[in-house]
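Tutorial, part two.
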Amino acid sequence: MSVGLSIDFGTSNTRAAVWDESEGAARPLLIPDISMIALQESSDGAISEVPFIPSLICYDGRHTWIGKQVLDRGLSTSAATFRWMKRYIANRLDLPRKIGGRSVRYSEAGRDYLVHCIAHALAATGMEEVEAAFTLPVEAFEHYQEWLSQVCERAGLGRFRFIDEASAAAMGYGLSSQSGQVCMVFDFGGGTLDVSIVRMDEKRGGYRKCHVLGKGGADIGGATIDQWLYRDFLARNKKSAEQASHISASILNALQQAKESLTSLESVDIEIQDPETGEPLAARYSRSSLEDLMEERGMFETINRAMDRALFDAVERGYSADSIEHVLLVGGASLMPCVRRAVRQRFGARVRSHRPLDAVALGAAAFVGGVELYDHVQHEYALRYYNRPKGKHEFLTIVESGTPYPSKGPVRQVTICASYDGQEYLGLEVYEISPEDGVHTGSSAKFDLIFDPSGAVQFREREPHDEAARYFWINEKCPSFVHADPSALRGEKRFPVSFTIDAHKRLCVTVRDLRTGRMLMKDEPLIKLR
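Running the prediction step on this input gives:
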């Protein structure tokens, strides 16, 4: 017998849920030994327990510990412990660290962490076979989904699927029970801010589908606030990052706890003793001082810009801000009073905040249990070609951001020409493009907080291109997909190519050979779109 399992891999915490076929509903999964419990308050004041797995992994000699195991053994500040793995992997900061005489990259640590989570989840359900669903951030690139696919294969999962985190949240809040509802999903987690406007529709057979009307996102989250606090704490104690590197993990741990405490307390005191010098490092943070820091770094401007972008997309599809019936808050950072206040200032009583911690995992479990999802393409895709008159490479868009799928017909048609006489293999370079808004941090300081190979915290200045559009070559492994027989002549307009998008969100190609009249390819998948 198989079971539907969902894994919502987060920057700070990871959650799992299962689909209960007998009840036709999803439920959170408490995994012994690695899960902890968080309390969540519903709209009627009832308190519920939500299991979560801290996104931590420690390579402790011959043992590998994850989640609660790391905390129980007092290893959260160990140099052998990895945190923020999702953020590093999603942002392509796959840095190596020296652990016990060997080098471990963040992609490897994240893989090992999830493989262990899956193994523990299988043991907790008592099932040997599962169909799993994994969540993806709105602004995730193809490399992140490919990395997750490799993780699933490493874990021995035969069947796995992916779902957009925002759409999973809408399902987790129960919107699939009311057809036609339009809502905004405000997902503010440890690594990213994702804002989506979705409409729930009914489908024959009792299943539901979710149409995404607009999306906005930013590379900012709870971990970003931790970075700001870390830098502020060092400044208050007149320390440089280099001077505090040996206790950086302890400082970060204390600051994260303080940030969480300020969701319910007015002020907290932090005091850490330097084990080498005995010098105390201390600071008092009030809720208002934290909010001032967030204001200085442009967080509220970033929040409003992300909501504006999603609203702009929705308006383009005929849905105004007044069409939104509910605004659903998701993610640990959305628990902060100032964040809730910023959203409520715009949407008032429409804001719902009773499932911020487990909505995504529950929605993903519902998805794998049969709730269907229709979406649109989030990124823009283009062909790179050489413009001979200008003497440089340029891009030709073939799929615009927001294109619905499956497409009703070709989304673009081009003709492939040979670049030299006798050419036998021809193709096209397809690139995935992310707009600048998708990677903007909202911070006036252009830096990233990263762990160096020893596990200490360092600051990395952002490169200028980090703030501009990003281009990723998607089909680098198979750029040539047309076999010319007989061989082609230079400049011969011989191979018309039509691009379509199928129901699995894949870019498909149809290629004809005008010289021979043969159909060389018919709706064959070329790449997976995001």
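Residues 291 and 338 are 7 Å apart (CA to CA). In part three we will examine how such features are distributed along the chain.
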